[in-house]
Specification:
By secondary structure, this protein is an all-alpha fold. It has a domain at 21-60. 58% of the residues lie in helices and 0% in strands. The chain has helices at residues 9-16, 20-33, 38-53, 59-63. The protein is globular. The mean pLDDT is 90.
Length: 74
């Protein structure tokens, strides 16, 4: 049985230019906050992706630099 999806956050993540690794890291971080509530989990991932897409923040500001990469100069 396929998992129910509430929000199409993956397409927004692509529009935002988030890497696959950044999306996985974001999903893990948000899942830790909402381990049993799939709708809240997806909503918060979507809102983070929208914020990046709309220029309100960046993936690095949300997650820090990707492992193995130095932080960007501010």
């Amino acid at each position: 049985m396929a998992a129910l999806s509430y929000f199409d956050y993956r397409s927004v993540a692509t529009e935002a230019g988030l890497s696959a690794d950044q999306l996985v890291r974001l999903e893990k971080a948000v899942r830790a906050e909402f381990p049993h509530d799939d709708m809240m989990y997806e909503l918060h991932v979507l809102r983070a992706c929208l914020a990046v897409r709309d220029g309100e923040t960046t993936g690095e500001e949300i997650l820090g630099p990707e492992p193995g990469k130095p932080a960007s100069a501010a």
